[in-house]
Amino acid sequence: MAGNAERTFIMVKVDGVERGIIGEIMTRFEKRGFKLVAGKLAKASEEHIKKHYEDLSSKPFYSKLCKFASSGPVFAMVWEGLDAVRTGRVMLGETDPLKSSPGTIRGDYCIHIGRNIVHGSDSVESAKKEIGLWFKDDELVDWTPTSHTWIYE
Fold this sequence. Notes:
It is a single chain. The protein is an alpha+beta fold. It has one domain (2-141): 2-Layer Sandwich (Alpha-Beta Plaits), CATH 3.30.70.141. Helix content is 39%, strand content 17%. It has a 4-stranded antiparallel β-sheet. Helix 3 (46-52) packs across helix 4. The longest helix has 11 residues, at 22-32. The termini are close together. 31% of the residues are buried. It is an enzyme of class 2 (transferase).
């Protein structure tokens, strides 16, 4: 069972919240079989967003990204399941929506790279860091849904 408990951080960005597609994104993760461990609507400060995206601080778009991501509410989530980080990234699609396959979240809902509606952890290490940045330990709910035995052997 322990191998099925990998966690990833997924965030519906400002543009996704404004477009009203939080539920659509959550539904995809639920239908895939992942378990929601935490979720909240938040209005992050620019400083908080800068910490979140600090690995991109040398990129020319960093400042613009941080201003945009702190301009309105985001929906932060923690999902748990087998290979959650890698699978979550595949479900999101390419960072550039025009390179994303139909059937992925970005492939179905986005056109422009600057409005790609969702963020997902790119490694287990970054997932742990991002989860810790957005959630306190007591906000992470440890539970087992009854559907668990229908998803995992």
